[in-house]
Task: inverse folding
């Protein structure tokens, strides 16, 4: 959700043992070597189960989130752009799809109308979350101008058939960037929204009026999303050399209850920060173990486990290859399994996606676990799509494939 001079990158870091990429989805390059990060092996059970390329009148399909319904079906909601403009501020609607077989096949689109979308520049960046009372929470961003971008929450008590009126999660008219699939519910029941605040230099309604150095901010709800407040502390990146600051933050709750926050930067790494009071106060941001271009990291806990799954783009070796468009620095997409914040607590990286023929770029990954697999939805545009954000891909990986690649006990 930033202008093109701050490209979105997403790298998946899953840790695996030795091997090389042998095959991806149909039409993907096989056995290509020489690119930094590609010594990570591909998972044998990894496969694409849905491709949503752009088309005439639908310039972009991107940024989604999943939730499992009470009858076992999976609901997926994503940003479906309307018209021939693929910019973040272009017109879009929220589209829904349903899978009845754990993500193997998917229904067609149903458009989910959102209140006031006709008055807004754009609607996008969905998070779906099962709330404490059993409702489904639909979180999304409404962009009214370059000075007013805020997250809304609608609830469904009938498994997505109908939705309540929206509640604004941010009360002030400011520009808050919240990535898709970012809203979390803590073990305490508290809801947390990680956001990047972008202050304005002036009142002109253009992208250049904003300060693109993100200020990591956090919004909290202790009544299941009915009311919201801003956390006591926001975070900045204390460097005179950054043009990005702390952009597109995310948070994961670790097994010990500590919150591990992270944000993309232009300093060569994701920066990390920690909270021991449920997101109200945070430690000073520091470089994390995840090397990264200006591209988002996604991370979630495996259900019933202390292990974390991380997905991101590692830093390529820029000195030995050109940055081909449209992929740029958002390839390859890798993943890893870990339990802590140091390299010693993570296993080897594994390859999630890569295509050096069509120069696909990968970012904005949503992670969703089923009984025996994980679904990853992410942008995967290549040459035929004109931009890396224009194509949406859903990939399915069997959870059993991660067993051999968990960090080794010390």
Result:
């Amino acid at each position: 959700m930033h202008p093109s001079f701050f490209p979105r990158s997403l790298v998946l870091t899953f840790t695996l043992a030795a091997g090389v990429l042998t095959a991806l989805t149909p039409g993907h390059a096989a056995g290509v070597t020489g690119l930094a990060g590609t010594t990570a092996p591909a998972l044998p059970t990894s496969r694409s189960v849905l491709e949503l390329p752009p088309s005439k009148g639908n310039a972009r399909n991107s940024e989604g989130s999943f939730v499992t319904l009470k009858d076992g079906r999976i609901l997926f909601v994503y940003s479906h752009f309307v018209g021939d403009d693929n910019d973040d501020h272009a017109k879009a609607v929220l589209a829904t799809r349903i899978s009845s077989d754990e993500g193997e096949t998917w229904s067609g689109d149903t458009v989910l109308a959102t209140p006031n979308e006709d008055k807004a520049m754009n609607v996008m960046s969905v998070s779906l979350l099962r709330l404490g009372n059993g409702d489904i929470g639909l979180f999304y961003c409404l962009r009214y101008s370059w000075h007013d971008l805020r997250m809304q929450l609608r609830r469904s008590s009938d498994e997505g058939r109908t939705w309540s009126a929206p509640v604004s999660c941010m009360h002030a008219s400011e520009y808050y960037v919240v990535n898709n699939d970012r809203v979390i519910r803590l073990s305490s029941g508290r809801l947390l929204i990680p956001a990047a605040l972008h202050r304005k230099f002036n009142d002109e309604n253009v992208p250049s009026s904003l300060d693109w150095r993100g200020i990591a901010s956090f919004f909290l709800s202790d009544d299941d999303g009915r009311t919201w407040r801003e956390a006591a502390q926001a975070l900045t990146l204390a460097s005179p050399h950054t043009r990005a600051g702390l952009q597109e933050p995310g948070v994961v709750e670790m097994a010990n209850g500590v919150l591990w926050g992270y944000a993309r930067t232009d300093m060569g790494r994701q920066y990390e920060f920690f909270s021991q009071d449920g997101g109200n106060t945070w430690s000073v941001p520091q470089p994390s173990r995840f090397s990264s271009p200006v591209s988002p990291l996604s991370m979630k806990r495996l259900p019933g486990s202390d292990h974390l799954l991380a997905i991101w783009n590692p830093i390529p070796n820029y000195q030995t290859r050109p940055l081909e468009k449209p992929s740029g620095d958002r390839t390859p997409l890798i993943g890893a399994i870990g339990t802590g914040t140091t390299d010693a607590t993570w296993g080897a990286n594994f390859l999630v996606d890569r295509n050096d023929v069509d120069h696909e770029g990968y970012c904005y990954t949503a992670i969703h676990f089923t009984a025996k697999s994980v679904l990853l939805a992410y942008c995967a545009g290549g040459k035929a799509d004109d931009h890396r954000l224009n194509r949406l891909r859903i990939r399915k990986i069997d959870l059993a494939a991660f067993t051999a690649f968990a960090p080794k006990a010390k």
Observations:
- The chain has one domain: 47-405.
